[in-house]
Amino acid sequence: MNFFKKIILILSFIFLNSMALADSHDKEKKNIVEKAKEVNQQVKQKQAAKNANISSEVGGEEPLPLNDPFVGDGSLSGGNSIKLIAGSEEEKRNLSVFNYKLVGVIEGNENMFASMIDENGEILTLNLFEELSPGVRLISLDSQEIVFERENEDSLVVINFKNQIIERDK
C-alpha cells in the first residue's frame, strides 16, 4: 500500500507542476500582446508629433507638386498635347520642330537660348542662329515664342508656350 501512495503522490506532484507551468505561459503571452500594443501606441504618438511639426513649419501652404513646372505639361506620352498646325503629313515629317515643345527662353546680355523638350523627355538647348536639323535654323527669340527658318521651302515655323507650332510664309 505504501507503494501505491508513493506513486499517487509522485503523479499528483507532476500533474500540479505541469498546470503551474501552463498558467505562466498564458500570462507571458498576454504580456507580449500588451507590450506590442504599447509599442504601437508610442509609434503612433511619434508619427503624430512629426506630422504636427511638419505642418507647423509649412503652415497653411500647399505641398509642392511632384512634377517639374519648368518642363511643361506632364503628359509627354507620345506628344499628344502638341497642337500641330500644318498642311500635310509630309510637311510634318520634314519639320523636326514638330517633335518638340518649347520649355523656356533664356536671354542674356550677349547670348540668347531656347530650351525645348521632345516626347522622350530629352531637353535640347539651342543658341540663336543654331540649326536644329539641316535646313532648320533658329532665327528669332521672344518672351512669347521662338521662330525657325526653313531654308529649302522659304518658310518660318513658330513655336509658342501654348505648344502650338505654326507655319508662316516669309
Written overview of the protein:
The protein has helices at 2-58, 89-94; strands spanning 83-85, 100-107, 112-118, 123-127, 131-133, 136-141, 145-150, 155-160, 164-169. The chain is 37% helix and 29% strand. The N and C termini lie far apart (128 Å).
Instruction: Trace the largest sheet across and list its strands.
Output: 1-9-8-7-6-5
What is the alpha-carbon Rg in Å?
38 Å
Strand content: 25-35%
Order of helices and strands: HEHEEEEEEEE
Unreliable spans: 74-86
Global morphology: rod-shaped
Oligomer: single chain
> What is the number of strand segments?
9
Instruction: Give the helix tally.
Output: 2
Percent helix range: 25-40%
Structural domains: how many: 2
What structural class do the secondary elements suggest? alpha+beta
Distance between the termini: 128 Å
- CATH-level-2 architecture of the largest domain: Roll
The average pLDDT value, as a whole number, equals: 76
- At the third CATH level, what is the topology name of the largest domain? SH3 type barrels
